[in-house]
Specification:
Elements (H helix, E strand, L loop, with lengths): L1 H8 L37 H21 L5 H18 L1 H19 L1
Helix pairs in contact: 1-4, 2-3, 2-4
């Protein structure tokens, strides 16, 4: 599991660690060019993890809004919105990589 996590955090193939995961910023390649591993056998295999991690991060981002009382509510809302966009969109490729890695581990253990 550690090896797989290290590989996918570098956006490399979870199976061999050499091939690239993405052919564009957030567009997952169909398979590894080095070993032929198919990243998503079914379309959308990684969506569940991406959705759940987005919900979790949204909760963490909203937590300060409930715990702190800003002096200017409008500025606080704008800052919170910008932070949410940067964090959620900026981490999308990494979260998708982790989802592919988790899917690889599940498939490896089941077969």
């Amino acid at each position: 599991m550690k090896t797989t996590l290290k590989r996918v955090l570098k956006k490399k193939c979870p199976a061999c660690g050499r091939g690239i995961l993405f052919c564009a910023w957030n567009e997952l390649a169909e398979s590894c060019r080095e070993c032929g591993y198919i990243y998503e056998e079914e379309a959308g295999d990684s969506w569940g993890f991406v959705y759940l991690s987005t919900a979790f991060m949204t909760g963490l981002i909203l937590l300060p809004m409930f715990l702190l009382a800003p002096s200017n509510l409008l500025i606080a809302r704008v800052v919170l919105f910008v932070v949410a966009l940067v964090v959620i969109i900026g981490t999308l490729p990494i979260r998708k990589s982790i989802a592919v890695g988790l899917n690889y581990e599940v498939r490896k253990r089941n077969f």
